[in-house]
Amino acid sequence: MLELIEEYVGPDGALRFQVTRDPASGETILGFAGYCWHTHPELLAAGYGLPEPEAVRKSIDDLLADRLVIGIFRQHGEVSDVAIEDDPGHGYEWMEPWESIEYRYWSGKTWEGERPVP
Q1: What pLDDT digit, counting tens, does each position of 47-60 carry?
Q2: Cα–Cα distance between 64 and 105 in angstroms, integer?
Q3: C-beta separation of 59 from 30 below 8 A
Q4: Taking all residues of the chain, what is their mean pLDDT, rounded to a whole number?
Q5: Which of 17, 22, 27 shows the shortest CA–CA distance to 83?
Q6: 0.85 exceeded by the pTM?
Q7: Same structural domain, 58 and 73
Q8: Residues 59, 10: one domain?
Q9: Is residue 89 part of a domain?
Q10: What pLDDT was estimated at residue 59?
Q11: Are residues 77 and 48 in the same domain?
Q12: In this structure, are 47 and 7 located in the same domain?
């Protein structure tokens, strides 16, 4: 069973972002509650060029400040996954007609095709 370290509930109540820890492995996991997508501090550290604790904090701060784009993936109209998107709008040419992606920010505001300047 994962230990909950931090949890953030989106302003519209649709999303919950969690920082958890696996007590068996000691591994920290960041992701949206109830969905498969997740990331780890070492991946964030590599992406931000910061030590792991600072990279985790920056990632959370960026998410909550609408500087990261969230993809809500649907199959047959039902949400199947929620992920932070590195390159929204690209890489999903393989999707089937019954699949869709909604891009938005933590605040619930729709992504309009441009990222805010960090």
Answers
A1: 999 999 999 999 99
A2: 8
A3: yes
A4: 93
A5: 17
A6: yes
A7: no
A8: yes
A9: yes
A10: 97
A11: no
A12: yes
